[in-house]
TrEMBL record:
Signal peptide: none annotated. Gene3D superfamilies: NADP-dependent oxidoreductase domain (3.20.20.100). This is Aldo/keto reductase. SUPFAM superfamilies: NAD(P)-linked oxidoreductase. Transmembrane segments: none annotated. It comes from the Bacteria. GO terms for molecular function: oxidoreductase activity. Keywords: Oxidoreductase. GO terms for cellular component: cytoplasm. The keyword Metal-binding does not apply. Residues 16-307 form the NADP-dependent oxidoreductase domain. InterPro entries: Aldo-Keto_reductase, NAD(P)_OxRdtase_dom_sf, NADP_OxRdtase_dom.
């Protein structure tokens, strides 16, 4: 397994990370046993970076990851946790809470659910518009000093917020959506991160399965984010799947899968970028791991750019109400 350091101050992690969200129902029903088996397979393959959130399944995902890690060396996994997104008993989103006292309370519950004594990377899931980012980062910095957190990360924030956060405490990475059809970070966010020595953990590298090569217009069900995602709506999904067919021809010529091309493209954008794959089954994990062996030549990259030019996606990456709340979109 290849390894890359997360920014100037972060830990060394595997060149591919495992995003565990989908194991807790965000894309419809998930198989708990298969999720745990997938985490075990990832660790055995050398993946060290595991990403979760305290609001994934209202704590279910942290408990699942904690169960999967039982009996293993704690240092085998670099656990990244997002916090602050609030949900009601029906699963509806209620906004974000990143007040200093909330930060410390959320962390206390996370440590219990994961059954660990520290979190490797702790980050607010979104910017709380009611709390200065300096206050939130300052509270996490207190937890670093106390030994409960090792490193501080950010998620879905823009250049100004990144600079302000980094002025309080070193930031190891920014977690943000980045894929062939979600390239918004390239204009302003990625340059600021590189200036400050902050790594990128890229989620949505397959755009929630849309550009995996496996999505054939299946009907999404209750509890599946894609039911409301603009890119999966009629009129948009057909255009997006047409882009995938172009990638499929290139993939077949190289003897690899569409998903492997898409993941390899993200990894090829810089050694400071770690793709997070949301595999919730062992077969999908094995396919994603194969992307590490895909070498994209300059000719391949130019061909991909022609097939999927920047801005080619039909539809935004989130519904309009959520897009309006993203600090990363205010650039």
């Amino acid at each position: 397994m290849q390894h890359r350091r997360l920014g100037k101050t972060g830990p060394s992690v595997s060149a591919l990370g495992l995003g565990c969200m989908g194991m807790s129902g965000m894309y419809g029903p998930a198989d708990r046993a298969e999720g745990i088996a997938t985490i075990h397979a990832a660790l055995e393959a050398g993946i060290t970076l595991l990403d979760t959130g305290d609001f994934y399944g209202m704590g279910h995902n942290e408990m699942l990851v904690g169960e999967a890690l039982q009996g293993r060396d704690r240092d085998q996994a670099v656990i990244s946790v997002k916090f602050g997104a609030m949900r009601d008993p029906a699963g509806a989103w209620l906004g974000d809470d990143a007040r200093p006292q909330a930060v410390k309370s959320f962390l206390a519950y996370t440590l219990q659910r994961l059954r660990v004594d520290h979190i490797d990377i702790y980050r607010p899931a979104r910017l709380d518009p009611n709390v200065p980012i300096e206050d939130t980062i300052g509270a996490i910095a207190d937890m670093v000093k106390a030994g409960y957190v090792r490193h501080i990360g950010l998620s879905e924030v823009g250049p100004d917020t990144i600079r302000r956060a980094a002025g309080v405490h070193p930031i190891c990475d920014l977690q943000i959506e980045y894929s062939l059809i979600s390239r918004g970070i390239e204009d302003a966010i990625l340059p600021v991160c590189r200036e400050l020595g902050i790594g990128i953990t890229a989620y949505g590298v397959l755009s929630r399965g849309l550009i995996s090569g496996h999505w054939q217009g299946e009907t999404t069900g209750p509890g599946d984010f894609r039911t409301h995602s603009p890119r999966f709506q009629e009129g948009n999904v057909e255009k997006n799947l047409a882009l995938v067919e172009g990638l499929r021809r290139l993939a077949e010529a190289k003897g690899v899968s569409v998903a492997q091309i898409a993941i390899a493209w993200v990894a090829a954008q810089g050694d400071d970028i770690i793709p997070l794959v949301g595999a919730r089954r062992r077969d999908r994990l094995a396919e994603a791991l194969g992307a590490l062996d895909v070498k994209l030549t300059e000719e391949d990259l130019a061909a991909i750019e022609q097939i999927v030019p920047k801005g080619a996606a039909a539809g935004d990456r989130y519904p309009s109400a959520q897009m309006a709340m993203l600090d990363s979109e205010r650039v």
